[in-house]
Amino acid sequence: MSSKKIGFWSVWALGVGGIVGGLFPALGVVIQIAHTGAPLAFAIAGTIALITTYTYAKLSVAHPCRGGTVTFLNQAFGSGLFSGTLNLLLWFSYVVMLSFYLQAFGSYGVSLFTSTQPIWKHLLISLAILGTTGLNLLTANHVGKSQIWIVSFKLGILILFITMGSSHIDISRLEPVSVSSLQSIFAGAMVIFLSYEGFELIANAAEDLVNPKHTLPRVYYSVIGFVILFYVLIALVTLGAEPIEQILAAKDYALAEVAKPIMGQFGSVLITIAALFSTISASNATLYGSARFSSVIAKSRGFDFDSQINSIDQSSIGLFITSGITLIIANFFDISRISTMGSAGFLLIFAAVNLANARMHRYTKSKQWISLLGAGICLVALGMLIWFALQTDPQTVWVLVFMVGVAIGIEIIYYLSNNRRLHL
What we know:
The protein is an all-alpha fold. It contains 18 helices and no strands.
């Protein structure tokens, strides 16, 4: 990667780009689960993310390096089985999140065609991951600049949707939230928590950032605050402008469908284009971060690609591996299952990162109770998500168990193959 530095707006765009892409696949999923409580579900998930943002801001200032979460866990818990397993689980979760974005890219892309044969969706998914992989082979400076343009374009269209849609809201469609519906609202919030995850990518860009001590906290809080408000407004307009039955009939590309009565056919096409740009920019931001920390994981385990393949940047190796596995997941898994798996993985990771900051609170100059509260909330949310999955789709829980089991197994094999003493 280049040594060129990126500024506030580049990394802000990287964070927003990594998050807002999750709106398009998450909107239909959360409305299917929470119905008219979808805006509240987005607010609840965003609040959990905001509490964890405090931890990430403190840790990122103390450790402004490209490792991000990997470095935070290793610094707090050492490079033993516990942190090693979590680091691998984080990488798995990134692959799941990329698949989440790419599924939406394929669904919205196919909605532009007269033919909706599955082959076209799979072709679009494959082209998207190949395109973002190529873009990430450029320097960090080019990645930052591309994010600013892409994010500005998609936010402009979505803000237009909110503005025009506010006059089409039918209040009778926005039923008051009842006590009996709270369970489904919390379930919806946990399932689509993945749609907020992108803020974690900011930590991976810290090493490339100008004046990280001053800029990082501003970026974190402004990104999450903006996205919470943005998601809630989008959900309100969507539910108020169209009967819920019609929204669910087109849940894979719900926003484009709702845009038709608000902005006409041309507006629907604009929203679809925004969805394509949004999910592409989210994939771009996610690949940028995952490629950087995958090389950190490799180095922490004694694998030095640079000494073996001098002509290829170490981060590029991680980029190719991540992209290849994402191609498989995105093309063969259902989007609701992908969302649940990814949300569970990140809730577990964020609980651990909160505990890491609580353990190092003196060094990071943090309030320990905030991080402990964040860890507790993430674990409670994870428990609720697993309970909901057991009621609705038990196979998803087994996939999550498989992910954790594989991560632990790889770590144990690493220790045994290198004749190292296994320790937590």
